[in-house]
Amino acid sequence: MMNTVIVLSALATVSLTQQQGEPIPIVRYENEGVNADGSYQWSLETGNGIVAQEQGQIKNAGSENEAAEVQGSFQYQAPDGTPISMNYIANEGGFQPQGEHLPTPPPIPPAIQRALEWIAAHPEPEEAQRPQREVHAKPLPRPFQKTNQRGFNRHF
């Protein structure tokens, strides 16, 4: 349900950023409210080309692993004319958007990739398999103590 609010807020923001003028008609709106099993679906199309749809359901209903799962998508045209299309899923794994317009991380540098492969191929031994090392710690030196004329100890 929260994702519905987020998507509708995003659509409202896109609509509000356009020049104010003629109201944009809703060409198609379908809503199958929340059913007894917790599922729902809705779809929307506006006169300026915005298309959005979403469906949700409860997975593992009645069990300890019960979780909501939402899938949806929306499309619109950016102010520069670029078509924007995004699909998303939200479940126990979080919100997972997919779209060509979303930024992607840069590739992993080759040296770091080799290091990661080496680490994966050479796992650290378990605690019981590690060789036990004796630790020979020296005691820390005590500060020099001097007694002043009144008999008080001072640390220098």
From TrEMBL:
Signal peptide: 1-17
A single cellular component GO annotation: chitin-based extracellular matrix
Biased composition (Basic and acidic residues): 125-137
Region Disordered, annotated ranges: 125-156
Record-linked InterPro entries: CHIT_BIND_RR_consensus, Cuticle_Struct_Prot, Insect_cuticle
Ranges of compositional bias, category Polar residues: 145-156
Superkingdom of this protein's organism: Eukaryota
GO molecular function annotations of the record: structural constituent of chitin-based larval cuticle
Coiled coil: none
Entry keyword set: Cuticle, Signal
Protein name: Uncharacterized protein
Annotated organism of origin: Acanthoscelides obtectus
